[in-house]
Amino acid sequence: MTRTGGERHPVRILFLVGTLQTGGVEKQLYFLTSRLDRTRFEPVVWCTSEKGLVGDLLRASGVRIIERALDLSSTRSVDALVSWLRELDVRMLFSFADWFWADVLLAKTAGIQTCVTRRASMRRPAVPVETCVRHADSDVNVVLCQAMYDHFLATEGMNPATLKIVSNGVPIPQRPARSISGQTVGNVANFGPVKGQRFLLEAMARLHSSFPGSELVIAGRTYGELEKLSEELWPGGTVKLVGEVADARPVYRRCSVYVQSSLSEGLCGAVLEAMASGLPVVATAVGGMPEQVVDGVTGYLVPPRDSGALAEAIGDLLGDKSRRTRMGNAGRERAIAQFSAESMTAGYTRLFESLLSLQPGERPAEQGGVRKPLKG
């Protein structure tokens, strides 16, 4: 808390993000900022480029949004950004932008006391040298799972004293929201090669003769490419593209199996949402996915880029309602216990309070012990 004339004021935190279109990063930003205790923290969101559906959700929850480009094209534009940051009078910058490299430098130049960065992906940054400098200057680098912690220690030489694990979290429905008796397979992801939807479509085509009534529902931006890929890889199949949605719960409600066919992930929010809805999950064993899905208990883990393994796992679930129900229930229990939006918000609240208690120039203590991957 800050004090003026004896009064207590919430600590203003500036959350930096590149876009407010629907995506995993943006939804996690919404889940967090909409749940922070407003008597202790005042979240302000700085969006540098595109508006989107998540922006509407943030405004509805009372979060202030500022739209301003991160213009580094000249000394004059950089000076203007620094002056603007000073005028905002924030105590902390929390960057949700994986690919920015100048955010921490700008904040420190503007006199912002504390800087936190969050990495949602293990993909290599576009400017690796500058990104490493950014991490060195940041007070805390948040990662989402043990796999990311180990990866960044090994590949980018991050200081373990500044590397902290705070898992993603999602809202938990009051009751399971699924269609366990149907043969609908769901996927929530914006189209892109890294999401591996080509292999999912190939898997569904393999299953068509055994499950002629099956259908695939995909929510997310398609860019016109997913339509072409569906016609190419599963001609005659039933593929329903529902487009970008701010709230994917209606998608989960119509599904009996959820599939995440990604080639790379951090800790996938859509998988957590599917688990919270009571769906069994088939996922590729990449990134933090093995810390979410317990193979053979809450669903199945398969190798990436393997449509045959995907088809076998999906078919195993489509052909056995009792197995779908059992695994879906186990996944929901796991989501409730370990991945709720409330537990994520509590984790960040503890982090913010510990950082705000430090003296200027003081760094947080090294995380006590390395958290082991979550077990079932």
Fold and architecture overview:
The chain is of the alpha/beta class and about 375 residues long. It folds into two domains: about 1-170 and about 340-355, Glycogen Phosphorylase B (Rossmann fold); about 185-340, 3-Layer(aba) Sandwich (Rossmann fold). Helices cover about 40% and strands about 20% of the residues. The strands form three sheets. Strands 5-4-3-6-7-8-9 form a seven-stranded parallel β-sheet, with helices on both faces. The chain has a six-stranded parallel β-sheet with strand order 12-11-10-13-14-15, sandwiched between helices. A two-stranded antiparallel sheet has the order 1-2. Strand 1 and strand 2 (about 5-10) form a beta hairpin. Helix 1 runs parallel beside helix 2 (about 55-60), helix 7 (about 195-205) packs across helix 12 and helix 10 (about 270-275) crosses helix 13. It is elongated, with a radius of gyration of 21 Å. The protein starts with a strand and ends in a 20-residue tail after the last helix. About 45% of the residues are buried. Mean pLDDT is about 90; it is low at about 365-375.
